[in-house]
Amino acid sequence: MAKGAWPIIGHLMLLGGTPTPHKSLGSMAEKYGPIFSIKLGAKRALVINNWEIAKECYTKNDVVVSSRSKLVAIEHIAYNQASFGFAPYGPFWREMRKIVTVFLSNRRSMEMLRQVRVCEIRNSVKDLFDVWDNSKNKNQSGYVLVEMKEWFTRLVFNIVFQTMAGKRYFGTNAVVSEKDAEKCVKAVREFMHMLGVCTMTDAIPLLRWINFGVKAMKETAKELDVILDEWLVEHTQKKKFLGEKVIVESDDHQHFMDMMISVLDGVTIEGFDANTINKATTLALILGATDTSTVTLTWILCLLLRHPHVLEKVKEELNTKIGKERFINESDINKLEYLQAIVKETLRLYPPGPLSAPREFIEDCTLGGYNIKKGTRLITNLWKIQTDPNVWEYPMEFKPERFLTTHKEVDVRGHHFELLPFGSGRRICPGISFGLNMIHLTLANFLHSFDISSPSSEPIDMTEILGMTNEKATPLEIMVKPLLSPKYYETMPSDEC
Ligand code: HEM
What we know:
Keywords: Heme, Iron, Metal-binding, Monooxygenase, Oxidoreductase. This protein is an alpha+beta fold. Helices cover about 50% and strands about 10% of the residues. The strands form 4 sheets. A 4-stranded mixed β-sheet has the order 1-2-7-4, covered by helices on one side. β5 (about 365) and β6 (about 370) form a beta hairpin. The model has no long low-confidence stretch (mean pLDDT about 90). Bound molecules: protoporphyrin IX containing FE.
């Protein structure tokens, strides 16, 4: 057990504010070694910090660590445990996980997902071009200042909401007003932030409520429920009106909510009715997909602007392997090895969930030679593992080349325990391909379509903030200028959209 626990709160004071929890826990690993425990209020939590222990954990002990902690906050804000991302390990989680995995990987939905990505990215490139075109504030070299966190957020939310329920919240043909769309994004972000803080403070009932207040938590949850409910009513009516056969066989996309309505067919599972399960599962995917992808895209741009030689190299790759004046398609991504290496290197240094998602030991077991008691929480410090100097040369430096040379064989899919941005084992992120496809295609088309530069000679600010994801604390303002001829931007969106 690490020293320095305070009465009642244990080590919680180390886990708030600055430095961020993964860095505080990382410093403790320097002192206490790769496996140590801390107290979160009355609860004991085991913190693991190297690939060897992670491997032992997610192979030999995987079943034992495949449950999530039952956070009290979840009961109030996330449909109790009908949300499979927070559900304990067992038949309900297995069933939901299977349904989600099938949706994200079957041939029919893959085509729908591909089309949504392509259309939204094309729309988004066109929108940014229009911002530039209409701007009266171009500098002498023709660049315009834009805020990119917002641009990525709008794009990612459009892709995810289209996939879940066929809804476009931003830009042309948006189904809600700009104000309502922003309110919704704010609610999702607040929700993620609450989850992040509650994960740490849940063990102490008083802190749980002091942090936000029950009222604020319930209000945020209610706001999201109203939106999900509206979508569900609409999709249920559509099914009644058109009939199952027509939806499945028509050209109309079968969105995630439609698929859930058909699969659940009104049944109650483990006390949760079909509508609650549908909304809870949709919300789990929205929460899992939006912030993580936006945060990753944001850090990638920050790192590229801080490393101009890497930016030049990826632009050269795009020019030689794709050429100019055409949209980059998903089938091109395999050729873009350096671009993929940039994404991996960003996920290594800035994993969006640096402490993964909290797990709980459901049986006594041994790990790293220690006896661990049932009920102990598990915190996997992904950031510490991914910056271990025993594995990574110059661990804190941004060197995408390592994934083309020394670490060529290392991927992010949970089998190489030195790089686990999506976690590992049974509970590994089910959205790896969805997330990577979205990030690769967005990045490739953005860098192909626009020249970018820093707005000042000061290096881009890299301060992170505490939450469920390690977000950049400040906006990302950069200078952009179209790289290609206006004709290229006019062909977006295409007939396919
Ligand atoms: C850059 C993108 C992403 C990263 C880095 C990421 C990372 C993670 C991590 C670290 C976990 C915890 C895994 C564990 O406990 O070992 C997780 C779980 C999860 N992720 Fe992702 N994720 C990303 C994108 C997505 C997307 C696109 C979706 C949805 C389509 C998604 C849905 C989920 C869900 C539902 C869970 C909970 C799974 C369960 O408990 O069974 N994620 N993700």
